Amino acid sequence: MPARHTSWAEPYKIKMVEPLTMTTREQRVQAMxxxxxxxxxxxxxxxxxDLLTDSGTSAMSDRQWAGLMLGDEAYAxxxxxxxxxxxxxxHYGYKYIVPTHQGRGAENILSRILIKPxxxxxxxxxxxxxxxxxxxAGGTFTDIIVDEAHDAQSTFPWxxxxxxxxxxxxxAEHGAKKIPYVSIATTVNMAGGQPISxxxxxxxxxxxxxxxxxxxxxxxxxxxxxxxxxxxxxxQGHRSVAEIVLEICSLTDGATMSAKKDAxxxxxxxxxxxxxxxxxxxxxxVVVYEGLHTYGGLAGRDMEAMAIGIAxxxxxxxxxxxxxxxxxxxxxxxxxxxxxxxxxxxxGVFLDAKAFLPHLPQTAFPAQALAAELYIxxxxxxxxxxxxxxxxxxxxGDHCYPDLELVRLTIPxxxxxxxxxxxxxxxxxxxxxxxxxxxGLRMTYEPKYLRFFQARFERx
Length: 460
Ligand code: F0G
Fold this sequence. Notes:
Layout: H1 25-34, E1 49-50, H2 62-68, H3 79-91, E2 96-100, H4 103-114, E3 120-123, H5 128-136, E4 140-143, H6 164-174, E5 181-185, H7 198-211, E6 214-218, H8 222-232, H9 241-250, E7 254-258, E8 269-273, H10 276-289, H11 300-313, H12 316-335, E9 348-352, H13 353-356, H14 366-378, E10 380-381, E11 383-385, H15 387-390, E12 406-410, H16 418-433, E13 441-445, E14 456-459
Parallel strand pairs: 1-10, 3-4, 5-6, 6-7
Antiparallel strand pairs: 2-8, 7-8, 9-12, 11-12, 13-14
Helix pairs in contact: 1-14, 2-11, 3-11, 4-5, 4-10, 8-9, 12-16, 14-16
The structure holds ligand F0G.
């Protein structure tokens, strides 16, 4: 047992550092203009603290770096593939796995296999790439998350929960045959990094079993969700995160994974299933879109780093420090009176742009404008999670208008220090104090798919 300490302090020390660029305000104003007020279009060299995403931005451990040297770059049957398969079976419990280059590669394959045109895919809130692949396969996403998830100020602890009555209504309306699976994310990114409870997942398993419907698990941040179950759910406090992760997975039939988050690698993902037929088809389809079924678009060394990262990701001390750092920033902002999504999420702190900038209508892209302002203030790069991310309605062509209009301060794993978190909080506070003079934006370029990545804006 490690020494018990009451803070969230990190269970590691720093062995190598990467110097950051410090910029002036004038440089940042110019960089933001050149980036069309989209933080995705900023060169990272112009960024001081990069909270754009927790995806692929983690620091790998010395063991993972050593694992890179053990890469077996055979086209077929690399030993690293077998290590990965073993790590997934051991820590997640799924039977069959297909590696992919990242999460959306797995979503593409799984959606093509399971969804028929006209199908309905209920889920605990949409995620951008997940929903797009469901739609490209001919399905329609239906939101069945609890109402509290759409309310930034609700302090309900399980905002990732499914509203079972909503699901019952979807089944009654369309029939179970039209529902290839229920899509469950742990944790729910777009709700602000909110967990689903084990009790809710068990009840969902019961319900779906009765109707013969699968549960497909977007397990991108499953260890973080398991940690929240350990921390908050009755009767779960004595269990290890690793044990809870295994139980979560056991309540589902298959999964897609972006290993760039929880699993502590810079690139990688996989699809998993307990059904032989689905596996056979996926193993065949992966050669079309990703690569042979024993590498799925990854180098052998990437699979080795992922296998090691998976084991590290479910360790109690690791996950406690990871989420602890996010809570540190969140609590600091709450103390400052800044409006953020409550409760604080596990992978980031989400600024409530509607409450932050009440003078801007949603069509003036308040979250996009706020993210730009924060960058200009301090070089902290955040990301819009609001109307731009929500895209357009596939039938009407109008914007989707999500209730949540958020700026995400996403914390990479094992990368930044407490002092960095202080800089971020101070900058958010400064921008908050000057919020009344922040103006809205107009979109000048809109890509067809996942527009938030490449859209351009100018000041109104
Ligand atoms: N599912 C969830 C819940 C995600 O957060 C992501 C990625 C994906 C699937 C897709 O995985 O990027 O490896 O293809 N989220 C990143 C983010 C992009 O910044 O939240 P991917």
